[in-house]
Specification:
This protein is an alpha/beta fold. It has a single domain, classed as Ribonuclease Z/Hydroxyacylglutathione hydrolase-like (Metallo-beta-lactamase, Chain A), CATH 3.60.15.10. It contains eight helices and 15 strands. The strands form two sheets. The protein has an eight-stranded mixed β-sheet.
Length: 280
């Protein structure tokens, strides 16, 4: 799916939803990941859940061209594909990589890539692979308030509520337009302020009201999810409070149809699916 009119390459600003699922395995939805692209070459991969490599290829994105990554938090469903991305993109010719995320990002990279795979990387380098793509990876732990301009796009880190994990939202501002990707979050007034006036708001809508016939043990899990994730209705309410133009619901559990009342929201509601391309 693609929404909004196409712009010239210099004006391009879009997000491709690579994974819109949850930790529960599904044939229809991969783990969370999205690619934000702007201008002729600006880009940032946001999260890297399982399947991110195949989804980038399915979206016709050359892996070796992706050299900016932002991770919202370290929960496994958002980073399980990260080592595969590092290796796959290096294997295809990537020579540089900058990775940004909350506290724990550098430690994750050390544990999942550097520590475990260093010996294998040295073997690959001995075969002829360049050191640059593995040795020169820059990994940065940042916090709310971090900001950087990447290829004329301002990228800001903002607050979410996803206890007890350190977690961030990211806002991208380019060409007078803006996009906010929440990562995982419960309803959060600080996130509403961070997202205010955005043209597109991609937000976690994982929580839902369990049906009456749900087994008690599963019901308890679902009810606890609301402590860490927003419901679809709360996402619509946050979008309305933030006066965003369009809201994209993502992080869907299998076989759950989002239920909400958008009568008090003046914008457009999009139910995100894998490989949707949304122009901003």
């Amino acid at each position: 799916m693609s929404t909004a009119p196409r712009r010239s390459d210099r004006e391009r600003f879009r997000i491709t939803l690579l994974g819109t699922g949850s930790p529960r395995p599904s044939l229809d939805r991969h783990h969370p990941a999205a690619l934000v692209q702007w201008g002729q070459a600006g880009h940032m991969l946001v999260d890297a859940g399982d399947g991110v490599v195949s989804q980038l290829l399915a979206a016709n994105v050359p892996l070796e061209t992706v050299n900016n990554v932002a991770l919202t938090h370290m929960h496994w469903d958002h980073i399980l594909g990260y080592p595969a991305f590092v290796w796959g993109s290096w294997n295809l010719g990537r020579l540089k990589l900058t990775v940004t995320g909350p506290d724990g990002t550098a430690d994750m990279h050390h544990r999942l890539v550097e520590s475990y795979y260093r010996e294998q990387a040295e073997w690959a380098i001995d075969l002829g692979f360049p050191r640059a793509g593995f040795d020169d990876i820059e990994v940065r732990d940042v916090s709310v308030g971090w900001s950087e301009t990447v290829d004329d796009c301002v990228v800001d880190a903002g607050p979410v509520h996803h206890p007890p994990m350190a977690a961030l939202a990211f806002r991208f501002s380019f060409g007078g337009r803006s996009l906010v990707v929440s990562g995982d979050t419960a309803k959060c007034d600080a996130l509403v302020r961070f997202a205010h006036g955005a043209d597109l708001f991609v937000v976690d809508s994982c929580a839902f009201v369990p049906p009456g016939d749900m087994p008690p043990e599963r019901r308890r899990i679902v009810e606890r999810l609301h402590e860490f994730h927003a419901t679809p209705q709360e996402c619509i309410d946050m979008a309305a409070a933030a006066a965003v133009r369009r809201v994209v619901l993502t992080h869907h559990l299998p076989n759950i149809i989002p239920e909400f009342d958008a009568s008090d929201y003046a914008g457009e509601v999009i139910i995100g699916s894998d490989l949707d391309v949304i122009d901003i």
